[in-house]
Design goal:
Blueprint (H helix, E strand, L loop, with lengths): L6 H14 L1 E6 L9 E7 L4 E5 L2 H5 L1 H16 L3 E5 L4
Parallel strand pairs: 3-4
Antiparallel strand pairs: 1-2, 2-3
Length: 88
């Protein structure tokens, strides 16, 4: 059985994890005619991108296709992409 970590140790790990992630970050990747691409939540050193898509992305077919293209571009650049969709 693993020993429980102390609250001091736990808060240190939590802070280190928090510091690895950035909200609404622009990457220098060309997308839709622009020289940058915005990611909702990014862990650059692990190349993990999280996209939090709202209901508006499901309601508009063009917005949906744009986000799927964005996911593909990120994957082509070596990022692991996770997405979150609203319940319908």
């Amino acid at each position: 059985m693993r020993p429980k970590s102390s609250s001091i140790d736990g808060s240190r790990h939590s802070r280190e994890t928090k510091e690895r992630f950035r909200l609404n970050t622009e990457l220098p990747i060309a997308f839709d005619g622009l020289g940058q691409l915005e990611v909702d939540l990014l862990c650059a050193d692990a190349q993990v991108a999280v996209e939090l898509d709202g209901a508006q992305h499901l309601a508009d077919p063009e917005a949906y296709r744009r986000h799927r293209r964005k996911d593909r571009v990120l994957q082509e650049q070596g990022y692991l992409v996770f997405g979150s969709w609203p319940k319908t």
